[in-house]
Structures are given as C-alpha cells and as structure tokens.
C-alpha cells in the first residue's frame, strides 16, 4: 500500500503510525503557467504545467505506485481533492488500484477509520474537482485581463482579484465612513443612590439626551429631592451558554483578538498542529463534535472539576451549512490535563506559538460541553419627582464554562450598555437616599476599523470567498500594499483606495458583494453537479466582455526598472523620452528596443519635446555604437538577471537583460578606477557574490593602486553599478 498526502510532516507522522510507505507532494505539483494565461478562451480548458522544482515528482510517484494500492489522501476539501485528482492522472495506469482517503485527524484511530472508509477514486464526487477548476480558471481570467488594464490606466502595477478586491473595498469603504463621520454630542443623566454605604447609579430611562438643556431641566426639577422611591424590584437568574467549537473563521477571529495572530499565521500554526496529530482538520465550517469525543470530555470534566460543571445532556450545535455536518469542528484529538501541554509541544518539536494556539482550541472545545454560567440579575426602577430612573446589576453566581474559557477578549467592541454593578437589597416602596446627579457628555462614535479577525468575520457574513481562502486573501492585500495593520487595526493605503475608485468606475461588478456571493453559490452548485465549471468561467469572462489579456506589456505601465533603464539610455544618448511612451510598458519597451537594438525609435514632433533634428542625428551614432555587431537576442547568456531572472547578454557598451526588464550594467562603471567590466567579471557579479578587484587606481592625486571587492548594487538614482567593499573597516590605498 502507498499513501500520498500533501504535507511532508503529515507523511512522516502517518508512516510512523501505520508503518505504511507515505509520500508527500508538498501541495500542488502542477498549476496554470505564470505566463501566458494558460486558458483556452473559447472552451476554458486549462493547460496545467509542472512546477519547475517538482518536475521529477510525477515520475517518482509513478515508480512508487507501480503495482500498489494507492490511497489518494489530499486534504478533505476542494484543493486537496484537486491535488488527488492530479496524482490520479499520473499513477492510475501503473497502480493496482486508486482509492480516495480523507483524513480528519492524524491519530491511529482516525487513520484506521479513514482507511476503512476509503472508496475507489472513480466513485468519488468529481464535482469537487470541477469547482476547483471553476475557481482557479475564473480567478485567472480576472487577474490576467483586469490587472493589466488597471495597471495601464493607473500608470502603475495593480492586481485585481475576484475575491481580494471586494476585501480591499471593505477596508476602504469603512475608512471613508470613519473619515466622513461627524461626531454628535449627547448626554447621559444618572442619579447617585446610597443604601447602607453601598453607592450605585440609576440612569434616566430616556437614555440619551440630544439636548443638554432637556437633561438640565430634569436635574433642576429633582435636585431638591433627597430620596428616590423604589417602584419596582425584579430579580431573576440569568444564564450564559458556551459557544461551540471553533470553525476556521472563528479560530482566525479569536486568535487575532486574543493572541494577535494574523489569519495567515493562525492557519500555518493550525496546519502544523493538524499534521502532528494534535488537532482535527482545521479547514471546516462545522461546529459538530463526534459523540465519542464528547463522552471523553464529559469523563474528563467529571474527574477534573466535578459533575456540577457538566450539563445534564451534552450540548448540541448545528452548523450554518448542512454540508458541513459531515466534518467536525476544530478540536484536540484527545483529552489531557493542560499541565501536559508543554511536554506535548516539546515532543513534537513545536514552538510556544503552537502551544498558545493549541491552548485556545483545547479550551474552546472543552468549554463547549460545560455547564452554563449563572448570574443573579437585578433591575430596579426608581421615581424622583415623577422622573423615572433604572439601575441594573449582575453578580456571577456560578462560573460554569467561564472556568475554562472566557469570551471577554472577543467582545471588547460591544455597544455601550448600562453599567453592571452590585446592587444592595432593596424592596418596592422603599425610599433610598439620593446623593446627587451626574450629567455626562458623550459623543457618538464612528464605526470601528476592522481587525484582521473582524475582517474575515465580515467576509464570512457576506459569503465572500471561503474560510479556507481568507488567510491568503488577507496576506495578498497586505503584501501588495493595499492595506496594512496599525495597532491591531486594518487601514487602507493609497494604492488600495486608488484601485477601488478605479474598479468602482470601470469594473464595478468585480467588487459587488452580492455578485461575489452568488459566484460562491454557483461553485457550490458545481460541487453538487447541478452546474458546470465551464458555465461559471463563461459567466466571469462575459462580465469582461469576453476580452483577451492584453499583449505582454500592453496593458501595464512601465516598471521602475524600465524607467531607470530608459532614463539612463536617454541621458547617455542625449535623447528625450516622449510623454506618451512613459505611460505604457509596451511603448517604453519598444523605445528601448529602438535604442539598444538599433531599431528606429518612435519619431516625434518638435512641439512635444522630440529629440528631432540635430539631437536625433546626435543620437544615431550612439545607437549604432551601443548595438554593435551582437544584438541582445543573439549573444550568449552570462547569467540570470538579478531583477527578473531572465538571461543577461553582452552588448557593445554594457550587459542587458534579454527581457528588457530594466537591468543594464554599463562596462564603464569602474572606469574612474581605471578598470572595465569584462564579460567574465560580469558573469561572476551576476552570481550575487562579491568579486575580487585587483590593481584599482585611486582617484586621488597620487594615483596609488589598491585592491577591493566589488558587488552589484542597485542605486535608486543611478541604476545598477558596482559598490566597492573593503571589509569591516575601509583601508587606505596601498602603494605598489
């Protein structure tokens, strides 16, 4: 038997438990190509290619699978099923048979149950793979068609995403709502009462006063009264129930609020906990727990805290999505004392961050099956000169689940409530001494900024994307400079606001919350084999007028490297770059080709700053000199471009990237020290390490010779050059 999973850690764990050969693919081993789009725009059929670093993996899988019963055990979700589908395509011809194995916990019990439930792969629901295709290809269409258009129109580098762009819009719109908010003052009127030395507050039943004069009039009317009449006293028992075990989104939100973890960090830590067999599968919408584990919790609590901390019957939780009931919520795989946690984490060679997240998961799961917290809640209504005031109080009588898991950290942003306080014993009809009045001025507050935790909760509420994608979404919009985190809150950056304004005007459909939600619903229908992935892709493509991606460079503004390279060329050759050319990456690339490749540069009139006349003639000779006999396409590669990784080739006056990304290293960069950069020296520099430079000539009057090391350096102003390195401390030039 051969088991194939995604994670190397999980593979080692499974092999150690089952003593069965287990391999890992380390995630996807093939995907759409980076360039071109890799999708037939008529049929939407994809062209998948092997990842460069995993190109030998299919052969290794086939060799290992030959004659074996193969368990395709990718994660139990769309992405995991897609990986298993791609493995199946590779090994089905050589394997004895192929079965789908879904692993929900990496324990001996969980693995044996998964093996027992494995079914032939051809009998599984292919709708999962079709939904993966719809999502992957639909997202590719949006990214490869709209991103270049946005980059061209905004003269920069912008990325548009079917799900990430609505997420950016949430942050941008919230920030603008905050900016536009005008605080409105209001007043809260309370009286101070005292019963046998216990002072407490009673608030006017009107709540907020919009006019201070109205509240002041009441104060004037009651100031002379020395007592308040207790008209009503209600005491009742209030109960608070525990929350269910974590779903993926709830875990991300709670970890953000309590542990200050980003969603990406939370999911990485949870993945490791799952792979090491400490928690159940962490990508889930379910809140259900297996009956056997609930019984384990109840037995544990009886011994640890006593039967009073158990409800008469186990709590039952229902998931929002009925399909989720096949899974479980996130929980530990076995019960233990928290005193054992440190040893468990150390045994698995995990970190304190793993321990903190595990502790959170453990406590939430255990608390979900504990007794309710019980409070004594009291409400008193008082009359003072015809004005009514209310006092509320709450006292914890039995902590119940709060003994293990408090929700205070997750509920900090609650709306303003009446103060909770300890109230003395008072009976109806009693006159209670009044000590005075309080009139507190307050102001309405704008909506709060999102934290990453509340942002993923809002995405879930709007049904944008899926919980398993939220960590990637928050990472992408941060890495691309659209938002950032400040003091635990997410704020938009200028590029993010610029992009959302552009999309709102030009491509509003891509940031429409309801449409994005309906797209996710459509993919669910694909999973259920009630719709096709091709229709999903056609619908997405149709929103863009069935456009094709712009030609390479056509839709994007120039890169910083292109601009630096072109500026250096223009400065050397005494040319002026036309304004129109500066707005298009393709046009600027063509202009550079015209200079470096001895192709005619675009002609312009003198009115718009054209080199024209003498300047054009002046540049012509230099064009020939730069191009020389060897064009960029024909010269031998000296190494990889440090900017983009493409081949660097020699021209007459320098070394240039064949992809015209902007990298150029002029041969005369060391001329001030009497040296020319030779092809062999350039090749060594392109390897990224310092190289020895012998017998350099000092620029001082004595013209002394000295040795140094040189390294490639990208100067923001002057482009690529050579930086001299003298060691820890610069040495004076040595005479020879």
Note down, in words, how this protein is organized.
This protein has 736 residues and is of the alpha+beta class. It has 22 helices and 22 strands. Strands 8-9-12-11-10-13 form a 6-stranded antiparallel β-barrel. Helix 3 (78-91) links the parallel strand 5 and strand 6. The N and C termini lie far apart (73 Å).
Mean pLDDT: 85
Percentage of residues in helical conformation: 25-40%
Strand fraction? 15-25%
Cα radius of gyration in angstroms: 34 Å
Shape, please? globular
Provide the spatial order of strands within the biggest beta sheet: 8-9-12-11-10-13
Largest sheet, in brief, is: 6 strands, antiparallel, barrel
Number of strands: 22
The tally of helices reads 22
Pairing-aware structural class of the strands and helices? alpha+beta
Low-confidence stretches: 597-634, 728-736
> Terminal Cα separation, in Å?
73 Å
Map the helices and strands:
Layout: E1 2-5, H1 8-18, E2 21-24, E3 30-31, E4 49-50, H2 57-65, E5 69-72, H3 78-91, E6 97-100, H4 108-117, E7 119-120, H5 127-154, H6 164-180, E8 185-195, E9 198-209, H7 212-222, E10 227-240, H8 248-259, H9 263-275, H10 291-304, H11 341-347, H12 352-367, E11 373-384, E12 387-398, E13 431-443, H13 452-461, H14 467-479, E14 483-486, E15 489-492, H15 494-506, H16 513-527, H17 533-543, H18 560-573, H19 579-582, H20 585-596, H21 612-627, E16 637-640, E17 647-650, E18 654-657, E19 664-666, H22 679-685, E20 691-697, E21 705-715, E22 719-725
Parallel strand pairs: 1-2, 1-5, 5-6
Antiparallel strand pairs: 3-4, 6-7, 8-9, 8-13, 9-12, 10-11, 10-13, 11-12, 14-15, 16-17, 17-18, 18-19, 20-21, 21-22
């Amino acid at each position: 038997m051969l088991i194939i999973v995604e994670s190397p850690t999980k593979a080692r764990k499974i092999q150690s438990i089952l003593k069965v050969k287990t391999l890992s693919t380390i995630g996807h081993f093939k995907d759409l190509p980076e360039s071109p789009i890799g999708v037939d725009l008529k049929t939407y059929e994809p062209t998948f290619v092997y990842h460069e670093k995993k190109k030998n993996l299919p052969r290794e899988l086939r060799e290992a699978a030959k004659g074996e019963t193969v368990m395709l055990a990718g994660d139990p979700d769309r992405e995991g099923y897609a990986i298993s589908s791609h493995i199946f395509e590779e090994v089905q011809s050589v394997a004895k048979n192929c079965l789908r194995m879904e692993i929900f916990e990496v324990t001996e019990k969980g693995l044996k149950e998964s093996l027992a439930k494995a079914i032939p792969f051809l009998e599984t629901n292919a709708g999962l793979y079709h939904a993966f295709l719809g999502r992957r290809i639909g997202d590719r269409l949006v990214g490869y068609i709209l991103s270049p258009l946005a980059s061209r129109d905004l003269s920069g580098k912008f990325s548009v995403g079917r799900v990430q762009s609505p997420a950016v819009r949430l942050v941008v719109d919230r920030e603008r709502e905050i900016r536009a908010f005008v605080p409105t003052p209001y007043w809260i009127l309370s009286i101070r009462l005292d019963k046998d030395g216990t002072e407490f507050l009673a608030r006017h039943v009107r709540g907020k006063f919009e006019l201070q004069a109205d509240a002041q009039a009441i104060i004037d009317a009651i100031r002379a009264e020395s007592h308040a009449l207790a008209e009503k006293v209600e005491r009742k028992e209030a109960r608070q129930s525990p929350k269910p075990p974590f779903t993926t989104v709830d875990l991300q939100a709670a970890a953000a609020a309590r542990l200050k973890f980003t969603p990406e960090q939370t999911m990485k830590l949870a993945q490791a906990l799952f792979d090491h067999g400490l928690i159940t599968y962490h990508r889930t919408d379910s809140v259900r727990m297996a009956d056997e584990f609930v019984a384990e919790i109840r037995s544990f609590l009886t011994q640890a805290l006593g039967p009073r901390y158990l409800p008469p019957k186990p709590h039952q939780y229902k998931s929002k999505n009925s399909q989720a009931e096949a899974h479980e919520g996130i929980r530990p795989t076995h019960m233990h004392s928290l005193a054992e946690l440190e040893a468990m984490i150390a045994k698995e060679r995990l970190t304190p961050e793993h321990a903190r997240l595990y502790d959170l998961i453990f406590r939430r799961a255990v608390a979900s099956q504990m007794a309710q917290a019980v409070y004594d809640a009291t409400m008193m209504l008082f009359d003072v000169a015809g004005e009514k005031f209310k006092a509320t109080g709450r006292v914890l009588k039995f902590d119940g689940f709060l003994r293990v898991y408090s929700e205070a950290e997750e509920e900090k942003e609650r709306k303003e409530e009446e103060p909770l306080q300890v109230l003395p014993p008072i009976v109806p009809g009693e006159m209670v001494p009044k000590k005075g009045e309080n009139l507190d001025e307050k102001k309405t507050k704008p909506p709060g900024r999102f934290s990453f935790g509340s942002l993923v909760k809002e995405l879930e509420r709007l049904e944008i994307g899926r919980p398993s994608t939220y960590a990637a979404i928050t990472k992408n919009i941060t890495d691309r400079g659209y938002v950032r985190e400040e003091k635990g809150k997410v704020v938009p950056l200028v590029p993010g606001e610029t992009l959302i304004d552009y999309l709102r005007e030009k491509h509003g459909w891509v940031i429409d919350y309801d449409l994005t939600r309906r797209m996710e619903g459509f993919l669910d229908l694909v999973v259920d084999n009630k719709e096709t992935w091709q229709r999903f892709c056609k619908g997405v493509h149709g929103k863009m007028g069935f456009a094709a991606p712009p030609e390479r460079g056509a839709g994007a503004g120039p890169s910083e490297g292109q601009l630096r390279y072109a500026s250096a060329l223009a400065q050397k050759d005494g040319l002026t770059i036309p304004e129109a050319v500066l707005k298009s990456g393709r046009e600027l690339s063509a202009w550079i080709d015209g200079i470096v490749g001895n192709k005619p540069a675009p002609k312009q009139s003198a009115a718009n700053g054209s080199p024209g006349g003498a300047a054009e003639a002046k540049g012509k000779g230099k064009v020939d000199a730069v191009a020389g006999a060897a064009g960029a396409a024909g010269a031998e590669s000296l190494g990889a471009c440090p900017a983009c990784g493409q081949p660097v080739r020699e021209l007459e006056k320098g070394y240039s990237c064949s992809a015209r990304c902007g990298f150029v290293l002029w041969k005369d960069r060391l001329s001030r020290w009497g040296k020319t950069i030779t092809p062999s020296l350039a090749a060594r520099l392109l390897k990224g390490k310092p190289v020895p430079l012998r017998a350099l000539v000092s620029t001082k009057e004595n013209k002394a010779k000295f040795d140094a090391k040189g390294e490639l350096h990208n100067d923001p102003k002057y482009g690529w050059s050579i930086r001299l390195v003298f060691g820890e401390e610069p040495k004076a030039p040595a005479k020879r």
